[in-house]
Amino acid sequence: MLQKLTIKNYAIIDHLEVDFSGNLNVITGETGAGKSILLGALSLILGERADPGVLYDKQSKCVIEGAFKVKKTQVAGFFQQYELDLEDQLIIRREISTAGKSRAFINDTPVNLSQLGELSQYLVDLHQQFDTLDLEKSDFQREVLDALVNQPALHQQYHQLFLRYVQVQKQLKQLQDQRNNANKELDYNKFLLDELNDAAFAPNEIEELDAELKILSHAEEIRTTLTRAYFQLKEDEQPILSQLRQIQTSVQGLSAFHKEAPAIAARLQSAYLELQDITAEIEQVNDQVQFDGARIEVVNERISTGYKLLKKHGVQTTAELLAIKEDLSVKVEGALNMDEQLAQLEKEQETLRESLRKQAAVITAARAKAAIPFEKDVNGLLAQIGMPNAQLKASIMQGGLNPYGQDTIEFLFDANKSGNFGPIRKVASGGELSRLMLCIKSLVAQSVALPTMIFDEIDTGISGEAARQVSIIMQAMARRHQVICITHQPQIAGKADAHYFVYKESKDGKVTTNVRILSREERINHIAQMLSGEKPTAAALENARELVK
């Protein structure tokens, strides 16, 4: 419920505050007084884009603020999704700077226009779910019937099942495409995999074989060099090890004469020990190196196979070759298992389709049942508001499964009892659409919790008894919901719980729009003026008193 609207520096409004009642709020005033400006300001806090040209004073910013009383259960999901603080009173503020920049806040937390627009659907029915233009759309017509059916759990269960059905269809299509492509490549991939399996290379095998071949190919050179080194170190007439030992002993003998001698002797000892280890290792390596012609042939053949495969697959190492082998293995195995996966998905798809058909049939039956009293009630209301010859019919045609069932719903309209019903979008005039919307809203409001409903001169073109009946319908709606109505009809103004008068006044040489709530006597006088002119007659005043009663 909109409790308070504050407008500063907007269009021809300097500053005004309006406190609304929770029932029927009527706004009246002369044409051009600024009634629609109020709705323009309200639309800004509902997420509409701002025009920097709306500033009343170009040197000050524009501020629009709305205070709403909300049921936490209705908006809890939105506040949780965007991590906003939820309180009993909801304050929405919109600011437009002198530079034309716009900012929006929910309970003093900055938000973007998209979030503001999303929240607005829970707060105000203004160009939103039940807008007059939407009446021509089949989606809206379906939503009306579903609102009257009022079984949200049934529709939610169906919708979740349909989402899974669509997901399975998508997976099935992707898998079928994959299988078709895989079947084309399966034979070739299997040939490549068999080739790699036959080669059976171990990790790093090609690199290790390459190193082994170098050793085998240069075995004689390696042995000659190592033998000579071993001989010079240990077996020569004057072995290097023996000479180093003698040198170390001689230097050690100088320890009594020079303080550096022991350190040099120790280093010589370390060098001697290191050369001893090197000599032993040379002997060991030399013993291991043997020329083996048969092994060279085996290694050469193995390396040749490896190089061919490396070149074939465009890689450089054994590890890359083994990775290709693993990938081929997965592809081949996947292709062989696809038929089983496809069969499972096809079975699930058929099960889901059958469940959807059964649930869709239940939804269709519920809609058909709701359509009968809906047509009767709408046609009855149309007669009340001055359209006795108009008739509405809800056509429900069954088709393919969709996110909302299996129905195509079309509201058909006949304005003159001709028996020729046509789609609303083709045969109903703007005025007829407005009356239809009012009738439909009043019925839907009995079944679901609509937000604050705003009617902007929906009563244009009617008078007398039809206007009185419209006022009765609005008054009935206002018992359950907050209704704000801009009107020129005295019959509707007389039903108001709160009556606001919009007027222009001159302030500091500028024309501004202002709003004030009327007292009972002011209401009677104003309604009398609406009936008979600026100077109401006694009869008009009496008539106004009757209307206010």
Automatic annotation (TrEMBL):
Protein name: DNA repair protein RecN
NCBIfam families listed in its UniProt record: recN (TIGR00634)
Domain RecF/RecN/SMC N-terminal residues, every copy: 2-506
GO molecular function terms attached to this record: ATP binding
Annotated Gene Ontology cellular component terms: bacterial nucleoid
Purpose of the protein: May be involved in recombinational repair of damaged DNA.
Alphabetic keyword roster: ATP-binding, Coiled coil, DNA damage, DNA repair, Nucleotide-binding
Segments forming a coiled coil: 158-185, 335-362
Family: Belongs to the RecN family.
Single Gene Ontology BP annotation: DNA recombination
SUPFAM superfamilies tied to this protein: P-loop containing nucleoside triphosphate hydrolases
